[in-house]
Amino acid sequence: MESVEREQTPAIYRTRVTHLRRAPVHHYFEHNSYSWYVDVDDLPRLPGWLAPFARFEATDHFDGAADDTLRDRVDAFLARRGIDLGGGRVTALLQARVLGYVYNPVSLYWCHDAKGVLRHVIAEVHNPAGERHAYLLPPCGPNPAMVHKQLYTSSFTGVDGYYLVRAPRPEDRLDMTVSLHRSDQPAIVTTLRGSRRPATAGQLLRLQFTAPLAPWTTAMSMRIQAAILRMRRVPVAPRRAAERLPVDTRQVAQA
Known about the structure:
The chain has 255 residues and is α+β, with helices and mostly antiparallel strands. It has one domain (11-237). It has helices at 70-79, 201-210, 214-231, 249-254, and strands at residues 11-21, 27-39, 90-94, 106-112, 118-126, 132-137, 145-148, 162-166, 173-182, 185-198. The longest helix has 18 residues, at 214-231. The termini are far apart.
């Protein structure tokens, strides 16, 4: 593994998300959004008049004490797995709070050691109920990493199967793919692709017109697609009590 040059943060990626369900019915949808690419030790601080459109809170990610920083929570997650980055840089692709609400279907963290070598990738998944689970992955090269599914992500998908995750560190372009496999066949394939933009006040203001209220519209899109699947009589996946995880009540209350 080679060290990487220190990229400039923060940045914004204007994204297109696609979602293809292959079974038990063929169902495809896509929507446009945007994500922030940040250094967790230096989160953006916006002018007062723009702050409601991009607020970053550590409590929206991982577990920890109320006064933890996001870096504290990332380090604690890694420490529970015997990993110490030695103060190395951690960059993240995530959604910010917009008008008090956030919905992060997937947040990604690229974890480097003190020499700048990429050592680990964390994929943190949130479901519409406010539950979350983080997966530790090896550095993603051309081949995807495999991880067994642990979180109940929708009414139509249980926790069986495994993910193949391809999440190279974003540069000028963002190109991520997550596929859920059952019986060695892809059941659901999701892609996140986009282009890098400067994280300026003007750029963020333009996005409020081209992709307004991004986390709200993402959550609404998911609800609409769920309603369509119900109308198509896709069976609901039964859920056991043991599969339930702690809920982010702030997210659910504002959904």
